[in-house]
Amino acid sequence: MDASHKADLIRPWIDPDERVTVDFQNERGLNGEVIECDGQTVTVLLETAFPHYRQHVTLPLSMISIGEDNGHYTRNPDKPLRYERLRLVVHEDRPQAV
Questions:
Q1: Geometric angle at alpha carbon 57, from 72 and 76, rounded to 5°
Q2: In angstroms, rounded to a whole number, what is the distance separating the alpha carbons of residues 67 and 21?
């Protein structure tokens, strides 16, 4: 899958009311929010163990695979309910948070 196709699949998930699942090689099942996606990168805010603190991560589209997470559903009450959400699989370890 090329970068433009990945970007087309990610862009509908740019919504502060929706979450995506992010899997790194060393951590799986993280909740994240997609805040930006251009033709080369995707920027995600990852939830952390600290309340009200999120890790800001920008990833090249070349290092991710895209799938569906059937274990979660969408949250935005203004849109139709979907019984799956976007899964981003990153082919590297999670960057360390400051």
A1: 35
A2: 9
Q: How many CB atoms lie within 10 A of CB 76?
A: 13
**Domain spans, the chain:** 3-68
Using alpha carbons, list the distances in angstroms from residue 74 to 18, 26, 38, 50, 71: 6, 25, 23, 23, 10
pTM: 0.89
pLDDT for 43? 98
Mean pLDDT of the 15-22 span: 92
Q: What is the pLDDT of residues 28-83, one digit of tens each?
A: 999 999 999 998 999 999 998 888 899 999 999 999 999 999 988 877 777 888 88
Q: How far apart are CA 11 and CA 38, in angstroms?
A: 9
Spatial neighbors of 23 by CB under 8 A, at least 6 apart, are 29, 30, 87, 88, 89, 90
Percent helix, strand, coil in the chain (nearest 5)? 15, 40, 45
Compute the distance between CA of residue 6 and CA of residue 17 in angstroms, rounded to an integer: 21
